[in-house]
Each structure stands twice: as C-alpha cells, then as structure tokens.
Design goal:
The complex is a heterodimer of chains A (about 600) and B (about 350). Chain A is mostly helical and about 600 residues long. In chain A, helix 2 packs antiparallel against helix 3. Chain A contains 17 helices and no strands. The longest helix of chain A has about 35 residues. Chain B is about 40% helix and about 20% strand. By secondary structure, chain B is an alpha+beta fold. The N and C termini of chain B lie far apart (about 60 Å). In chain B, strand 1 and strand 2 form a beta hairpin. Chain B contains 8 helices and 14 strands. The longest helix of chain B has about 35 residues. The chains are: A mainly alpha (about 600), B alpha+beta (about 350). At the A-B interface, helix 3, helix 8, helix 9, helix 10 and helix 11 of A face helix 2 and helix 3 of B.
C-alpha cells in the first residue's frame, strides 16, 4: 500500500531537530512531550520530598529534617504533585491525543498552546526557586488564612506560593480554553459529540472545570497578595474579616480541582479497557453522562472539606448528602468498566494491568471517601492520616495509575516503538506493592489518632510500626520508578517497532503512522460511528488517513510564545523580587505579544 | 416491630463483628496501646460517632467484597486464552444501568439517614447544667478557663465523669482544631468566632489529644491531656486550683526563684494569682499540679523545666516564650519556685 506513506510535499520545517526546534515548536505532539517530560521530572521531585518526609516519620521523635524543613516539604509535595505533576501529566495527554483523536491537524491555537507550556514551566521553576531564596512555602498546599498573613508568615515563602499559583493558573486557563475550542470546533466530519472517545469527553469536562475553577482561586490569591503586599484586610480577623472566606474560596476551587485531577485518568481507562477486552465500552452514553454529572456535582460539595469548621448542622447535612450523591455516578462508571471486560477477551498487557489496578485502587479510595462524607465520622478522620490514605488511593491509585496506563498504551504512538512488556509488568507489580505498603497502613494509623502534617510524634502512641512500614513502602515505589525510567529510555531507543496500530485500537489516532507526521492526517477522515476503526469503514479510514492531496498548511514555529511567557513570569515575579525584575518582564511581555500578533504565519 | 428490632440487632452485631475484625487486623486497638485511638469511645458523643462508623463499615466491607470480587472474577474468567472466540460487541444494557444506579442510591440512604440524625443530635444545644469550659487555642498550647470556679489552666483539661461538659472554643491567633478522640470529634477554633462542642464522658481515665489543624512551626507539639475524674476527685482538684498560690519562704531556693520570677520579666506574660498579671503565656498559679508543660510535650520535672527555661526554642521549635538568657543559678531557683506551685 504505497499510498499510505506521505508523498514528498511542502511539510513545514517543524520536523527539524535540535534544541531550538523544541523552544520554538508549536506542534501539539512536541508540546505534549515537553509537558510530559517536565511534569515527570516534577513528579520525581515531589516524590523525593515525600521520601524525605517518610524518612523523618520512620520513627518517633526523629531528627532527619528540621520541623521548618518538614513543613516546607509537605507544602511543596502537595503543591508539586497537584499543580506541577498530575495536572501537566494530564495536559501532556490532552496535547498529544486530542487533535489525533478528533481528526485535527493541531489544536485551535497552536502558539497559545506553546505559551501555556512555557508559562507552566516558568511558574514551576519560580515556585521551586523559593527553596534557594529564603525558604519554600510552609503553610500547606491549602494555605489556610490567617496563618498565611504577614503577621504569622513573615517570610517570602507564601509570596512565592501565591504568585506561583497565579502564574500556573494562567497556563491552565489558556490550555482550558484552547482545548474547549479545539474539541468543539475542530472535530472531523461526522464525529458528533456522542461519537467522541470518552477521553475526549473527559478532556472537555476537565477543561470546563479548569476555566470555571481557576478564576475562583485567582480571586482568593489576589485577596491574599493584596493583604500581604499592600496591607488590605480581606482575611484579617482583627479588622472584622472572616478568615473562613479563604476556605470557602479555596475549596470552591479545590474540589473541582480534585475532578480536574481524576477525570482525565478515567478517560484514559475508558480507552484502554475496551481495546484490551476486544469489546466496545459498555454503556458509553452512561459513562459520558456520569463524567458530566461528576463535573457538575463537583461544584456542590466543597464544604465537606470544612466539616470541622463548625458551619452548623444544616450546612453539614447538605454537603454530606451532595457528597454521597457523587458516589452514584462514580460507582456507575466502575460498574460499566467491569461490564466492559465481562465477556471480553482480556489481554494482560501492561497498559491493561494499570487500568485494572486503577479500578481496584480507586474503589478503595472511593470507599474511604464515602466514610468521611459523613460529617460525624469525618470529625474523627479529618486531618488525620486516614485522609492521607484516602487522597493517595484516589490520586496515586487513581490518577497516577491511570496516567501510567495511558503512557504504556500510547507510548508506541508517541515514539513508534513498543515498551518492554516484562519490565512494564515488573513496574506494575512493584507499584502495586509499594503503594499498598505505603498507604494502606495510613488508614489505621489515622483511625488510631495520628494527625497529618506533624513533623514528629511521641513514642508510646502505637504509631511506630505502621509508620515504619509506610516508609519502607516508599522505597518500593522508588524502585518501581527506576524500573519504569530504565524501560522508557531503553524502549525509546531500541524497542520493537510498533506500526500504526499495535493494540488494535478503535480510535482515530491508530489510523496514522507511529509516530504521526507533523500534520497528523493527510486526509481528514469522515467518521460514521463510535469506535471508527472497528466499524465497517475502519479499513477505509486507515487506508486514506495518510493520503495527502495538495498543500497542507501548518503553523510555523515561533519563539514569541516562549518569550511572552518568560516576560509575563518575570512581570508577576516582580511582586516578590521588586520592580527591577517586574519592569523588564513587562517590556519583554509586551514585545513578545506584539511580535506574536504581527508575526507572519505562512 | 419485633422483626425490625431483630433485624437491627443482627445488623449491629454484624457491624460490631466487622469492627472487631478490623481491630484485630491492627493488633487489638485497645486504648492502652493506642492512647489516642478514635475507635475506643469514652463519651456519648464519641459513641454516637462510633455507631455511625459501624454502620458505614458494614456497607464499606460489603461493597468492597462485592465490587473487588466482581473485578477479580471478570479479569480471571475472561482473560485471553488461545482459541477463545471474538467477544460479542455488546454496547450496553439499560436494565443493568438502572439497577446499578438505584442500588448505590439505596445503600447511601441507609447511611445518609443515620448521618443526618447524628449530626443534629451531636450538634444541638448542650443540656442544661453542663460544666462550661472556655478553650482558647494559642500557638502552640491550649488554655482552659472554668468560669464556674474561676480557674485558668493550660494543656491539661480536668472534667468530672458523667457530667456534660460544654466547651466554647476560641483562638488567640490562628486557626487550630481541638481534638481529643476518646470523647469527641474535632472542632476548629477560628479567629473572630466562638465554636461549641459538648460531650458527657462515661469513664474515668487520662486521654491524650492534640491540635489537628496545621497552625505553624510547632503544630506537632500542640498537645493536651484530658483527665476524666470521679466527682470527688474533680471537687478536690477544683478546690486546690482555687486556692491562692504557694508562698515560698523567702530564704529558700524557691523563695529566691520567686524574686527571679519578679525581676527578669516572666511577669509580663504569665499570671500567678496575686503575684503577676501577664496573660500571654499559660497561667502558672498551680503549675506544679500539672503532669506536663509546653503543650503537654514534656513531663513536668526539674530537668525538663530547666532545659526549657534555658532555651525554649531549642526544646520546641518556634516557641513564643522568650529566651531571657538566665544564668544556671537563676534557672535553678526559678525551677524550684515553679515546682513549689502545687
């Protein structure tokens, strides 16, 4: 089939290599790779922070790190894992996959997409710079007012945190709008909304959550920065303010944020399970509607993070009931996933193992979540290690396992090579053992009364053995990551050649070569069904997707998104460093945006 | 009615058995090995929470076994075998979807109803005749005031068994969370607010607690002790606390310690009734009657007191007590005075 390879046509110089080509790229696939590698490095940094905390807590009254450093570590561990690891790892999949899955040649705004990545990178570096400039933030990733006021946190850590989150918020907002517009406007002919892959649906829901949730924390952080930098009194109780305002704003952002972290992983699992069960997704519309329902309900449950505040029995009852209600669509998703596998022919590839592991672990995280949905029970569990166990079963057992599943599944599409299955399975089992040894004992140590965010604990409380076990588990997780990194590097260099569709997947990305050419589709396919490659015209789509007729216009690479992002980051970091950084940043940003706007794009 | 009662009995028995199993799994969660456990309730409030937890645990275990079981059965039964036929492309089943939407909703109702009942029962007004105690959270210690007896103390809360205790909770600085798991769920202390918490302790004993909301450098060191006493013991305790402070012989070491106390600046922060008026630090009128100090993290003995006074920040990170750079003689005298304040 000679026609399936791209003939020599005027393909943009985007396929160039070298450092500069990565700095200036606007190709969604390359930006996806940048997001992935950067976020994975931050995932390792966040993991290192966690390991240091676990070593400190291995025995009572340990002195491995000072209390001050410990408080910085848990603040930065949470901030890093949420904003610098899991969100951008999801963004990596959005970037790489969404145009491929909807039959588009790029996202709606390729240069804005590059801008998002660079803002994310610079914002992430900015927050972590605080470690070397007087101490990282140390008031928790939730930064409760009034502990964050200048009176109780006089150092610059909180400023780095607040400004850094504002910078990262801009990256997320730009990406959120970009993906909504891409998904709404750029689908291939015939790809109706209810024919979209579930991953595309979950990206759409997540993007809507991002654009509605980030403005809330933006407002909360603007208040905080005004309080700290200009002496306003938004959260100052002495001036009649109610510091609980911060908690409402933070969790009104924070709970949708939880779904921003988990819905992409649910989307990944919904793609992987059908492929390796050789069966379409069971109850596709129900899975989609459940995801949308979870997205909506995510706005009505925020005060379940605040049951201990004392909001009164009516508020507590209301938020308990809405929270329990979310268990229904979540349960329905799990039942549909199991039903997808039921009657299938399950191939135990590594990607499939991680998806099955996701379901098994997410059930446990869901059940512990159901336990503290009940306020009286939560009043014993909140702020203890029980909740630490819960969030790690949903975020590590959920999001991270889902992301690994997606990585093993789409690695061939990204690189053209297969990952080593033996090492992959070793990675999977070490991960499962490591995470359960680490996090399962935390349920008990929490119920036995150990609060979270403590740098030490007294001997004789019965916490010793289980803490030591948790610490040992972390090293198993570390080992699993070494196996993964080795596998990734080796497979990328010398893995078996994958071909366009190594797993027999049903979605459009599997119709084109691996890795895809810069323009993705030579001919944009017309979609007639859910699971197009499994349909009657699947072979036809695979045959024509790579045929090029005439000139394909692709956006040229540009350095201005990166320079605009750098200027904007410098401008905002001026709030911490002073005008001598802010003013040059403003100039650079304006020059960058102007040049961007008037840059010829052909 | 009889049927319902019987059903309820079996239910709570099953739940009880499960919680016992859970307890066994973590090595018999008795409160002697696990003094701060949430699973060994010692008051009406803590027991109401425990009953709710048992109901939840019952359903959690049932759901866990059924769903994880279904997952495992599916994965094992339908794993790829050589020669297995191509699966049927089933797209869904409306009856199943409706069923597995309604089933969790029903289970949720079984938990939601007792949840709401427990919320309203435990967050209502305290019954009349309760012992009122005002709790003030400070970075990083707890202050307890008994308006009924005119007593102010720190880090150690004394209450009589069988009498309802009604706490009003405030903070002197940032948000903290008051938590003594044996008798009550946690309740935050929030600036510019007064929160309430009441419980009736049902057994005598000593129960630890600690701050549960991150509150800065020494959050981990903001602990406390609850002493639930017999009414007679409690009456004796209140009488001793109401007495004026011990007046040491001025020639004794303790007497010299009192002079040091008055001269070096302790008076600015600490109250000793009739001696000094400071209110920033804990009231020391009867400090020697307490078993611990500095947020209940050190035993109240001479070596620990001396070490503490010598350099508070070295003993407790971020401690707000000033290091007055006292010499060893001054410290020894001060410790003697503090130990005399029974």
């Amino acid at each position: 089939m000679a026609t399936t390879t791209a003939p020599a046509i005027a393909v943009p110089a985007e396929s160039a290599t070298g450092f500069w080509s990565w700095v200036t790229t606007v190709d969604h696939k390359r930006i996806g790779a940048l997001y992935g590698v950067t976020a994975f490095i931050f995932f390792l940094i966040g993991g290192l922070e966690a390991t240091m905390m676990r070593v400190q807590l291995a025995k009572p009254e340990n002195t491995f790190v000072s209390p001050d450093v410990f408080n910085q570590l848990f603040t930065m561990h949470g901030t890093t894992m949420i904003f610098l690891a899991v969100m951008p790892l999801s963004a990596s999949f959005f970037n790489f996959l969404i145009p491929l899955m909807i039959g588009a040649r790029d996202v709606a705004f390729p240069r804005l997409n590059a801008f998002s990545y660079w803002v994310f990178l610079f914002g992430a570096l900015f927050i972590n710079l605080s470690f070397f400039l007087g101490g990282a933030p140390d008031t928790g990733w939730f930064g409760y007012s009034n502990l964050t006021s200048s009176q109780y946190s006089p150092g610059h850590g909180v400023d780095f945190w607040a400004v850094g989150l504002q910078i990262l918020g801009i990256a997320s907002l730009a990406a959120g709008f970009n993906f909504i517009i891409t998904i709404v406007n750029m689908r291939a002919p015939g790809l109706k909304l209810m024919r979209m892959p579930v991953f595309v649906w979950m990206t759409l829901v997540t993007s809507f959550l991002i654009i509605f949730a980030f403005p809330v924390i933006t407002v909360a952080l603007v208040f905080l920065l005004f309080d700290r930098l200009t002496g306003t009194n938004f959260y100052a109780p002495a001036m009649g303010a109610d510091p609980v305002l911060w908690q409402h704003l933070f969790w009104l952002f924070g709970h949708p944020e939880v779904y921003i972290l988990i819905l992409p992983a649910m989307g990944i699992v919904s793609e992987v399970l059908p492929t390796f069960s050789r069966k379409p997704l069971f109850g596709y519309p129900v899975v989609v509607y459940s995801g949308i329902f979870i997205g909506f309900m995510g706005w009505g449950v925020w005060s379940h993070h605040m049951f201990a505040v004392g909001l009164g029995p009516i508020a507590d009852s209301f938020f308990a009931l809405t929270t329990m209600l979310i268990a229904i669509p979540t349960g329905v998703k799990i039942f549909n996933w199991i039903a997808t596998m039921w009657g299938g022919r399950i191939e135990m590839k590594t990607a499939m193992l991680f998806s099955i592991g996701f379901i098994a672990m997410f059930i446990m995280g869901g059940l512990s979540g159901f336990m503290h949905a009940s306020p009286p029970a939560d009043l014993q569990q909140s702020d203890t290690y029980f909740v630490v166990a819960h969030i790690h079963y949903v975020l590590f057992g959920g999001s991270i396992l889902g992301i690994f599943s997606g990585l093993y599944y789409w690695f061939p599409k990204m690189t053209g090579r297969l990952m080593n299955e033996g090492l992959g399975k070793l990675h999977f089992w070490l991960t499962m053992i490591g995470m359960n040894v680490t996090f399962f004992p935390m349920h008990f140590v929490g119920l036995l009364g150990m609060p979270r965010r403590v740098y030490t604990y007294a001997p004789g409380m019965g916490f010793d053995a289980m803490n030591l076990l948790s610490t040992l588990g972390v090293f198993v997780i570390g080992l699993s990551l070494l196996v993964f990194i080795w596998n990734f590097l080796m497979s990328r260099r010398s893995g078996a050649v994958a071909g366009p569709n190594p797993w027999g997947g049903a979605t459009l990305e599997w119709a084109i070569p691996s890795p895809p050419p810069p323009h993705n589709f030579g001919t944009v396919p017309t979609v007639h069904s859910l699971d197009p490659l499994w349909g009657k015209d699947g072979e036809e789509i695979a045959r024509t997707a790579n045929q090029v007729h005439g000139h394909i216009h692709m956006p040229p690479s540009s350095v201005w998104p990166m320079l605009s992002a750098l200027g904007m980051t410098l401008l905002m970091s001026g709030m911490v460093f002073g005008w001598w950084v802010g003013i040059p940043g403003l100039v650079l940003m304006l020059v960058g945006l102007y040049s961007w706007a008037f840059e010829p794009c052909h | 009615m009889a049927v319902r009662k019987l059903k309820g009995l079996t239910w709570s028995r099953a739940a009880g058995a499960l919680v016992t199993l859970m307890a066994l799994a973590c090595g018999a969660c008795g409160y002697r090995e696990y003094p701060q456990t949430t699973l060994h309730p010692q008051s009406d409030y803590a027991q109401a929470i425990q009953r709710l937890l048992e109901t939840q645990m019952f359903w959690v275990v049932v759901i866990f076994v059924l769903v994880e079981g279904a997952l495992i059965v599916t994965v094992v039964r339908f794993r790829s075998r050589p020669g297995a036929p191509d699966p049927k492309p089933v797209h869904g089943n409306t009856v199943l979807e409706v069923a597995w939407t309604i089933a969790p909703a029903l289970i949720l109702a079984f938990v939601a109803v007792p949840t709401v009942l427990t919320i309203f029962k435990t967050q209502g007004k305290a019954p009349p005749g309760a012992l009122e105690v005002k709790v003030v959270g400070h970075q990083w210690w707890w202050e307890f005031q008994y308006p009924e007896f005119g007593i102010t103390t720190g880090s150690e809360l004394h209450v009589p068994v069988g009498r309802t205790v009604s706490l009003s909770l405030e903070t002197g600085d940032v948000i903290h969370s008051f938590w003594i798991p044996a008798v009550a769920g946690k309740r935050d202390v929030v600036p510019a607010r007064v929160n309430h918490l009441w419980f009736t302790p049902d057994s005598v004993g000593e129960f630890p607690g600690q701050c549960a909301e991150f509150c800065g450098a020494s959050h981990a060191n903001m602990r406390m002790k609850l002493f639930v006493q017999t009414p007679a013991e409690f009456a004796a305790w209140t009488a001793a606390q109401q007495a004026p402070p011990v007046e040491p012989d001025s020639t004794s070491l303790a007497g010299k310690g009192k002079q040091v106390f008055l001269e070096v600046g302790c008076v600015a922060c600490h109250t000793i009734q009739g001696v000094s008026p400071g209110i920033i630090g804990p009231n020391l009128t009867h400090v020697a009657s307490r078993t611990s100090f500095a947020g209940a993290i050190f035993p109240n003995d001479a070596p620990h007191l001396a070490k503490w006074i010598e350099n508070p920040q070295a003993s407790k990170p971020g401690a707000t007590m000033l290091n007055l750079n006292l010499n060893p003689d001054q410290i020894a005298a001060l410790v003697a005075y503090l130990q005399a304040l029974k």
